Amino acid sequence: MQPAALIEQELAAAEVAWKDDNDGKARVCARRAVARAAEEWLERRPTARWHGDAMEHLRQIQQDASFPLSIRQAAERLSTKVTHRQTAPFTNDPISDAKLIIAHFSTRDL
């Protein structure tokens, strides 16, 4: 399956989970969609790749000052654990945050 199809598959699963009031699954699927987009983008780069799971990709995005602040903030919200929702930036719309980051990857220069 092509990377774009895998990203869309994860976003579709996130949408279904969100509509079924399964916020946890929606967040996981949204994170995986971002990770797949990051991996696709990293494949096109001449520099070293990031390694790790979806949460590691989100941490890398948060820490990389070359990403716009809005993208880094979306990654931070999306990576915040539910148990820290009262004390850390937290997204109430993980799918929109994921789509924002994914759209940035599709337009970002190498």
Protein described:
The protein is built from five helices and no strands. It has helices spanning 3-19, 23-43, 54-63, 69-79, 94-107. The chain is globular, with a radius of gyration of 13 Å.
Number of strands: 0
CA-based gyration radius: 13 Å
Estimate the global geometry from the Cα principal axes.
globular
Number of helices: 5
Written as H for each helix and E for each strand, in order along the chain, the element string is HHHHH
Low-pLDDT runs of 5+ residues are none
Structural class: mainly alpha
Distance between the termini: 23 Å
Specify the helix fraction band.
Answer: 55-70%
Average pLDDT number = 87
What fraction strand? under 5%
Characterize the biggest β-sheet.
none
Note the main attributes of this structure.
about 110 residues; 5 helices; mainly alpha; single chain
Indicate the topology:
Elements: H1 3-19, H2 23-43, H3 54-63, H4 69-79, H5 94-107
Quick recap:
This protein has 5 helices and no strands.
